Amino acid sequence: MLRTGLLGYGGGPSVIPLIRHEAVNRYGWMQDDEFGEILALANALPGPIATKMAAYLGYRLKGVSGAVVAVLAHILPTSVAMVALLGFLYALRHSKVVGGMIAAVRPVIVVMLGLMAYEFAVKAGKGLGKGPALFFGALALLLLAAVDVHPAVVVLLALVYGSVHLRVAARIRERRNRGGLGRGGSESEAGGGHGTDGRGEGSGK
Amino acid sequence: MKWWHLFWGFFIANLLGYGGGPSSIPLMQEEIVHHYHWLTNGQFGDVLAVGNALPGPIATKIAAFVGYEIGQWPGFVIALAATVVPSAVGLIACMRLLDRYRQSSAVKGMTLLVQPVIAVMMVLLTWEMGWESIQAIGWLQSLGIAAVALWALTRRNIHPALVIVAAFVYGGVVLSHWV
To answer: Alpha-carbon distance B67 to B84, whole Å?
Structure first.
């Protein structure tokens, strides 16, 4: 676990293949499909994914103490390094060289955030379909930027509506199929479908 | 009160960060910068920079540093615990219960619906940070560095940590004469 914590660059999800390698191939703690099962379950819960995996694997092997050891091994080294490095950086903040370093790295971070946004958008488009993803994205933008709703509230709304989304989508499809018998009818039904979407979100509030 | 805020801020941000650490970043930024004013946007950017240059999960690294800034080592422990413990305990405790709901359309729908929202929050965060960078070092430098970084990350597939280190070096050598 210590090694996976150290080797996985770029945030939790990128660590998963490494954890799998250590747990399945190297130490033989479990079979590959069992690992997949646990991963799927961990994804259904919120929070950082890598620490959830570490906690569960540790727990399965050695009980509560195993869970504690696995999580600590996973996060402590880099957490302490983080405090030390940034502390060092900020202690020298007034030097021109460090000031320049900080200023130069900010555009890079902007690009990385932008790329992450793009990845999430692509994932959303694949999962929901382009139209609905755009619709919900626009709705979120409206709430966040124009109405200035707290992000936590917007996420909560998405989760609440999300829990009924697939049922709503299935009903829309069903209705569209029935309307699809007549060509003119299917057009108006598609419009009606969007209305149902809006109402679903409304009842979520 | 300070301790409670630390715990609550990180607890909420990670509880709602559905789909792993990176999706919590905009939520953490909201709590850290806008809500509790622990850091400025610029400082939050520095934390992301160093955090991305170091290996390991990003959410816990952010929590560790902010916790330490606010309340030294007790703060460090509280912020980390708030980030890690609830979901870890949740997974262990609910393993059997979750098994029943994994196939449910409700869970799948929640995972799907949160993605466009996170994407939009990321875009807004990108915009905020970009604007600050432009104000600090001007259009020319900001866009130039951003363009090179984009090229290195997407076209050349250079490792993010290396790109960050390169930016640090460039800043130390060139930008220190500029700002």
So the answer is: 13
**Max CA separation in chain B (angstroms):** 61
Contact at CB, A155 and B16, closer than 8 angstroms: yes
**Own/partner pairs for A143-149, CB < 8 Å, 24+ apart?**
A144/B120, A144/B121, A144/B124, A145/B124
Tokens of A104: 């130069």
B126–chain A Cβ distance below 8 A for any pair: yes
Q: What is the pLDDT, as a whole number, of residue A180? A: 53
Instruction: Answer yes or no: is pLDDT of B66 > 80.
Output: yes
Using a CB–CB cutoff of 8 Å, tell me whether B15 touches chain A.
yes
Using alpha carbons, select from A24, A21, A15 the residue that is nearest to residue A78. Answer: A15
Nearest to A197 by CA among A133, A148, A121, A154: A133
The two structure tokens encoding residue B133:
């960078």
CA pair distance B39, B53, nearest whole angstrom: 19
Q: Which amino acid is at B36?
A: Y
Q: How far apart, in whole angstroms, are the C-alpha atoms of residue B119 and residue B70?
A: 29
pLDDT score for B154: 82
Q: Is B98 on the interface with A (CB under 8 A)?
A: yes
Place of tokens 């929640």: B110
Place A17 in a pLDDT band, splitting at 50, 70 and 90.
Answer: low
Predicted complex: ipTM over 0.85? no
Contact assessment for residue B114 and residue A155, using Cβ atoms and an 8 Å cutoff: yes
| Residues 6+ positions from B123 with CB-CB distance below 8 Å | A114, A117, A141
**Option in B59, B141, B176 nearest A96 (CB):** B176
